[in-house]
């Protein structure tokens, strides 16, 4: 692992059902996420996804790559809205390596649009290799999720 080492990507297809479930999960009933008429009044072509999707993908990438206990700090900023039907792609790279920490740069894309950016610090394991070198295997958007 060296600076500029890319992290494996994580993808998620956002759809209206996922947006509705997110509204319930985070108790955010804002109609801009659920009703097209409200989204149109706000100047959007359709409902918009919660920022939690982009931020959550960053967290998923970090915890699958480094392990949950290794994550020390995460900062993120939302840049643009995400709409139903878009596929989010979260990617990152190593920006710095210290004796006990690794610094990372993260971004979430929807097509060519950068919708979120962030940075993170994870603890560096005593020995090179897992968990930082393992491959991230995220479920495909078409695969069924856990039963609710």
Automatic annotation (TrEMBL):
Chain ranges passing through the membrane: 47-67
Superkingdom of source: Bacteria
Keywords linked to the UniProt accession: Membrane, Transmembrane, Transmembrane helix
Region (Disordered): 124-148
UniProt-listed CDD domains: R_hydratase_like (cd03441)
Residue ranges constituting the MaoC-like domain according to the UniProt record: 11-99
Protein name: MaoC-like domain-containing protein
């Amino acid at each position: 692992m060296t600076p500029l080492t890319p992290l494996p990507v994580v993808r998620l297809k956002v759809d209206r059902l996922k947006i509705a479930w997110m509204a319930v999960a985070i108790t955010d009933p804002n109609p801009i996420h659920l009703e097209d008429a409200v989204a149109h009044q706000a100047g959007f072509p359709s409902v918009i996804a919660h920022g939690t999707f982009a931020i959550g993908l960053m967290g998923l990438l970090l915890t699958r790559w480094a392990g949950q206990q290794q994550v020390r700090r995460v900062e993120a900023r939302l840049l643009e809205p995400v709409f139903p039907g878009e596929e989010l792609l979260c990617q990152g790279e190593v920006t710095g390596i210290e004796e006990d920490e690794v610094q990372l740069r993260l971004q979430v894309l929807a097509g060519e649009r950068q919708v979120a950016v962030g940075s993170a610090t994870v603890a560096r394991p005593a020995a090179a290799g897992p968990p930082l070198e393992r491959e991230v295997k995220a479920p495909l958007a078409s695969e069924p999720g856990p039963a609710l």
